[in-house]
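fyi for ur records
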Amino acid sequence: MDTSQDAHRRLTELEIKASFTEDLLDQLNLTIYRQQEQIDSLLRQVALLRQQSPDGGTGGARNLRDELPPHY
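which gave:
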């Protein structure tokens, strides 16, 4: 009888661990989903900023005179 109770106890512990593991996996999946949404949003914002920049975001050569501080 002792082995039957021991097996039942071990099975119960495994079920509890599996339940916690499933919960953790769900939380991690939700975190990844939210992070991907944030990444997508940031990529859209960067694309919009590139479109708004005067040179189209190409990063081409700039005139050094444009770089001078206003007091010169």
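The chain is about 70% helix and 0% strand. thats all i got for now
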